[in-house]
Design a protein that fits this description.
Number of domains: 3
Order of helices and strands: EHEEEEHHHHHHHHEEEHHHHHHHH
CATH topology of the largest domain: hpI Integrase, Chain A
Largest sheet: 5 strands, mixed
Structural class: alpha+beta
CATH superfamily of the largest domain: Intergrase catalytic core
């Protein structure tokens, strides 16, 4: 009777591991690599684990077949170097061989991350697909260093693209490695000690605004001329200009979140870039414009929930919203320039810096919560009132001159009553809801 040894000396390979799966061998070792052991799983012999033994101390390096024999042997020298310096240190090795393996993992993780917006997911996917995979996908994880990254990615990209874009692609790579390192999916992070400025020292300056205060009279004139014919694109541009909002959060605006009676526009956290809810005052001019715009919608047969409706009962898509500005701007400026010109004007009109940042809903640190809650809302209203009065002088008053067919612009007191009547007649249930809730800020107009 032949007794099968529990440990068998072989030249370790995937083929040898498979060859002994049906035997009683418990462990394989390789005379060439005396510190390395392979042990079969007691539950499923198609699987197993790699171990590294240094100075009598065992350390699990990873699982098979996730880590093949070839990958294990390639990584063993670095493990032994680390264990020689500190026998108690980790023997863990990543199951990934190349940078592309890590990027594939990160792409899947990003696609299923509910904390990221669709726009951010799309941006990351594009960076991975168009730049990181083609340039670095075949590079072995252990070979990625400063010089390799510069030669294959950073220097070629800076020749072809704007530095701000190169920096955004670099950031995706850095975050992917940092996340993998935090989860201990890789033994070391080659990006940990690197910075973007190691590769590109030129200072990246903000993109200059293509729309200036001097351009506002002509812009307002154009928006007024096409307001009846193209109300959606005109209103979208005006709402962004009036309030300094982003295109993404403006196109998602709902009528239930604009209240003409209390004079507030509520932007839910899910709709904002900073994922923080945002409230903006509605001035008399903005109220008049909203009344006029809603009347046009109703006249055209739309009584749905969105200020800017798209297809299939949803809000206007990001792509279609961007395309609308092609007709208005004719390639001379972007939707974001409306936000820039508003911010610049607020400063010129004497708006406090902090108030301007709050109006833009920028992520801020170390702000006094008491200041924000007790005074900021009133200061935001004053800032927008000053801005809209300035726009009146640039022809804004012409755009908001009518509320809806057959009605003239009303004094402030009459306007609130008019807004309430308009709200109740447009949405009968809301009139009752408004009275029952005592004027909640987020009801239908």
């Amino acid at each position: 009777m032949t007794i099968t040894p529990k440990t068998l000396a072989v030249s370790l390979s995937d083929a040898e591991i498979r060859r002994h799966q049906s035997s009683d061998v418990r462990q394989l070792r390789d005379p060439r690599y005396r510190e390395l052991r392979f042990r079969y799983s007691t539950v499923d012999r198609t699987r197993g684990a790699w171990h590294v033994v240094v100075a009598g101390k065992w350390g699990k390096a990873g699982d098979y077949p996730g880590i093949s024999a070839k990958a294990m042997l390639a990584t063993l020298p670095s493990i032994l170097a680390r264990r020689s310096a500190d026998p108690a240190s980790s023997s863990t090795v990543s199951q990934w061989l190349a940078v592309g393996d890590l990027l594939t993992w990160y792409a899947d993780r990003t696609a299923r991350n509910q904390g990221l917006s669709s726009k951010r997911k799309s941006s990351i996917k594009s960076a991975l697909k168009c730049h990181l995979w083609p340039c670095l996908g075949e590079v072995r994880l252990g070979d990625l260093d400063r010089a390799t990254l510069d030669r294959l990615l950073m220097w070629p990209m800076q020749e072809r693209y704007a530095l701000s874009f190169v920096r955004s692609v670099y950031a995706v790579l850095a975050v992917a490695f940092r996340q993998a390192a935090r989860l201990r999916l890789i033994e070391r992070n080659p990006m940990a000690e690197l910075k973007f400025t190691d590769f590109v020292t030129t200072r990246i300056r903000p993109k200059p605004a293509q729309l200036r205060a001097d351009d506002l009279p002509d812009l307002l004139r154009v928006l007024n001329e096409q307001f009846e014919e193209r109300p959606v694109e005109s209103m979208l541009a005006l709402m962004m200009l009036y309030h300094g909002t982003r295109l993404g959060e403006t196109r998602l605006a709902r009528w239930k979140n604009t209240n003409l009676i209390s004079g507030k526009w509520f932007l839910p956290a899910a709709d904002t870039k900073t994922k923080a809810e945002h409230t903006l005052p509605l001035t008399d001019q903005a109220r008049q414009l909203l009344l006029r715009y809603r009347a046009i919608q109703l006249e055209k047969g739309y009584s749905g929930p969105f200020l800017f409706p798209g297809n299939a009962g949803q809000a206007l898509s990001a792509t279609k919203a961007s395309n609308l500005f092609t007709n208005i701007a004719r390639g001379e400026w972007s939707s974001h320039d409306l936000r820039k010109v508003a911010r610049t004007a607020w400063t010129d009109l004497g708006t406090d810096y902090m108030v301007g940042e709050l109006l833009l809903n920028h992520a801020m640190k170390d702000l006094d919560a008491t200041y924000i809650h007790t005074t900021a809302e009133e200061l935001k209203r004053r800032a927008l009132e000053s801005w809209h009065e300035h726009l009146d002088q640039q022809a804004f008053e012409v755009i908001a001159a009518e509320t809806y067919p057959g009605h003239e612009k009303q004094p402030n007191g009459a306007q609130a009553a008019q807004g309430e009547a308009f709200s109740a007649s447009t949405h009968p249930s809301q009139g009752r809801m408004q009275n029952r809730r005592g004027g909640h800020d987020h009801e239908l107009v």
